[in-house]
Amino acid sequence: MEWNTLLVAFSMVFLAEFGDKTQLAVLALATQRHPWSVLLGAGLALVLSTVLATVLAVLIAGYLPPYTVRVTRWASGVLFILVGVWTLIRPV
Fold first, then answer.
1. Which domain range does residue 33 map to?
2. Which residue has the higher pLDDT, 47 or 80?
3. Residue 30 in contact with residue 39, Cβ under 8 Å?
4. Which of 5, 24, 30, 68 could staple 64 via S-S, CB 3.0–4.6 A?
5. Is 46:17 a contact under the CB 8 Å cutoff?
6. How many domains, the chain?
7. 73: pLDDT strictly greater than 90
């Protein structure tokens, strides 16, 4: 086990998920439903989506050129910023 990689992955996912729409949806759902069921359901959903992303990355990694990681990082950053700007300027 690479502890440094584990810490980076944990930090990245925790910071990305902290305060996002999913967390707010879970908060709202837990006020109306059984909290332990909400916790288990949301936790399993996050685990499953992470498993799918990891498996996909392992499967396609050998077919992608080395610069793909940099392009993906930039594209996802730009998309993240665009979604944030759209969220701020869209009418309510």
1. 3-89
2. 47
3. yes
4. 68
5. yes
6. 1
7. no
Length of the chain: 92
b/e per residue, 37-53, with b = 16+ CB within 10 A?
ebeeebeeeeeeeeeee
Residue 85 has pLDDT above 80, yes or no: yes
DSSP state of 91: -
pLDDT at 4: 94
Two tokens, residue 41? 């359901």
pLDDT reading at 2 higher than 80: yes
Report yes or no: 26 and 42 within 8 Å, Cβ to Cβ: yes
pLDDT digits (tens, 9 = 90+) for 11-60: 988 888 877 888 889 999 999 999 999 999 999 999 999 999 999 989 98
Closest listed residue to residue 53, CA positions, set 81, 4, 12: 12
Q: State how far the Cα of 80 lies from the Cα of 86, in Å rounded to an integer.
A: 10
